[in-house]
Design a protein that fits this description.
Structural class: mainly alpha
Number of strands: 0
Strand content: under 5%
Bound molecules: fe (ii) ion
Order of helices and strands: HHHHHHHHHHHH
Amino acid sequence: MRTTIESYMQRAGRLNLDGIEFDDFRDSPLAPEALRSLRYMHDVEHHTVCYLRDLLLTPAHRDPDITSFLSCWVFEEMWHGEAIGRVLEAHGEEAGAPRIAALRTKHRRKEALSTLSTVASAAFAGRAFTALHMTWGAINEWTTQAGYARLSEKAGHPTLRELLKRIMRQEGGHIDFYASEAARRLAESPRAQRLTRFALKRLWRPVGSGVMPQEEVGFLVGYLFDGDEGRRFTSRIDGRVDRLPGQADLHLLATAVSRLSRLEIAA
Ligand SMILES: [Fe+2]
Ligand SMILES: [Fe+2]
């Protein structure tokens, strides 16, 4: 584990924006669907710090390697939000603090409930909760990276492609840590395997589901992951979950895409 965390910490840092010409978007703007996706990604990247608050109330805060990782991770995610905010601003949209403050006010009550339930579950689950947290993190990072890859393909904008390539590289560092920790901790504990499987099956929803309105979650999932090409990405992620100890055949992504696409059609 030291190798994983040390190599991540060596590479971690603020997203490099050298050579990214945000003014390109003024001359050649993105399609409305791509912009709508970026609003979602901006909000969710900036929400990472609130998610971290909940995590630090769990037994995860006792492990210094995990807290070192989380310290760098939240910093990197914040700069992803800032970079996406500059794309929104180049389209004349509000981004950064005013947009985030409005979102947090709207979700204050929901947030209090999520914090309370995190604390209650962590107290009940003890150390097994950390295995669940690492597994949940791995799945969320896999789907985030896949979401950026799909958006890059669908938008077909060279400046966005370069920006997302750099963000995806950092998401890859997050994946390495979460996935290796998840595999190791699950392999060590049948109880952690059972708790994780139980929680994923009942509670897992695509990244941002607890923060963003349901119609935005439905739009994003449908836009990025419905259809043959999208399914290629989601089945690859379901295959990675299958290979984690005790987590075979959950089909989390396939189930979420089919449920949310149905909602989109009904809307
Ligand atoms: Fe990110
Ligand atoms: Fe990430």
